[in-house]
Amino acid sequence: MYDLKITGGTLVDGTGAEPRRADVAVKDGVIVAVGPDLAGEAAETIDATDRLVTPGFVDIHTHYDGQATWDSQLEPSASHGVTTVVTGNCGVGFAPVRPGKEEWLIQLMEGVEDIPGAALAEGITWGWERFTEFLDVLDTRSWAMDVGTQIPHGAVRGYVMGEAGARNEPATADDSAAMAEHVREAIEAGALGFSTSRTLAHLAKDGEPVPGTFAEREELFALGRAIADGGGGVFEVAQGGLTMLDRGTTTEEMGWMADLAEETGQPLAFMVLQTDTDPNLWQDVFERFDKLLERGIPMRAQVAARPFGMLVGLQTNHPFAKRPTYQALAHLPLAEQLEQLTRPSVRDAILTEADGPLNPDNPFDGIGPFLSMMTDKMFPLGTPPNYEPLADASLGALAAAAGNDALTATYEAMLADEGKAMFMLPLFNYADGNHDAIREMLLHPGSVSSLGDAGAHCGMICDASIPTYLLTHWARDRSRGAGIDLAQAVHLQTQRTAELYGLGDRGVVEQGRKADLNVIDFGVLALSQPELIHDLPAGGRRLVQYASGYDATIVSGVVTRRNDVDTGARPGRLLRGRR
């Protein structure tokens, strides 16, 4: 008897092959049969008639490093069909750590990834020093999905070099050798890779660039060789030149990245975004990338499936946050704020006064003046959310068409929906005002769908929903240009992402693979509007975005979500090493 049988569904198997009618049978957490009209009884049968059956989604760019120590569900990823996550990206994480230096790592993560420090301080259950001990602690936990992790450069540098490492002083040969030993040991113990950041966009809470930002070639190569020596894994990098304010360009960084990947034979994953200052630079990157792939160099480009930026609103960030009259109201509950903000006298005061003094310890404190100049790029998100709006739908354009002042119109708009209205501000991947460049990047044979940052940027974005967006927008709903074939959209977030991290036991629905599966009502699958909740430890806030249309999500043959509701089952385990 099977443990589980899914019958009558349209199978999209993750390989990119055409969908087909097939049943799927599961025993002991493994897919044991795939085919039409499978015979045999099962302890549980799921009728998937008129439904899609896909592999579970593999999200390789998350920041659940702290959350995984206190949260077994790992929302919002759990609500988007994700059955495997990889953490430890962008050179930040919580191991190794010197006793007494925990707060430094918290502030590093808070600055780079906008995760509330108070939540991390209260929520993380420490109990490790070396990275191997961190893995041992994670090994005692279970989740609604499998969790793999990488060893981060920032933590390693701080552990080995102390203050000199934290302040980005050059590493000596002995320093590099000591760091390499940590990386080798971590890979041997099951880390899926090593991560580093070289972009000036990644700053600790004190404004210092992430340790490793200016690492020299000798240091980087010592760490890359350690990955190979430990048994292999991914070298993940947020490279210099990533943003419009950065030093250098991605094409310049590709020299050392290609040399490292070629020498070690290990996959190197870098990031590609379209910027407004040079909208066609990504094409130059891919032109050079093509030549590297022709030489067989194992590199992959991490790309985002939708515009990359921030959500603006009364509850998140907005142009009036530092104006004294608003500051006096900021502590109030949302309903009470709204009551005050709708008063003409309060509105007039906020619109006419200057910003108050900035907090030098908060790098985002001065964002109000920036946002006040960006009304032509702020778009009402709406319900259902629209991530590909026309230019004339921006707050600035709508105000101009009505003969109104843009900032006044922005003020009024952010009070809509009981103060919960959200506006998309695309800082990357929207220079052309459409998704055509995103589509081309996604479909490049060297790309992986990534950069959702699940668990991070808690008060700015919620791109953990990208797996659902690949299906709703790209495979079904896009009207402003070509979409993406359903089979390819599934492939991009299953087999393609799993293979990069050597997770050959998942990402495809076939006999012998791990029984990580989704049953999806494709016709009704939908994203909700992002919302702000306060459920992190210490009352910390975060943006979440849920989905509807997942009949079932299955991890190791166990149903973890049924009809978009968590079942309480926790079959997810720590991933140790490639398989």
From TrEMBL:
SUPFAM superfamilies: Composite domain of metallo-dependent hydrolases, Metallo-dependent hydrolases. GO terms for molecular function: hydrolase activity, acting on carbon-nitrogen (but not peptide) bonds, in cyclic amides. Residues 44-560 form the Amidohydrolase domain. Keywords: Hydrolase. InterPro entries: Amidohydro_3, Metal-dep_hydrolase_composite, Metal_Hydrolase, Metallo-dep_Hydrolases_sf. Pfam families: Amidohydro_3 (PF07969). It comes from the Bacteria. GO terms for cellular component: cytosol. This is D-amino acid aminohydrolase.
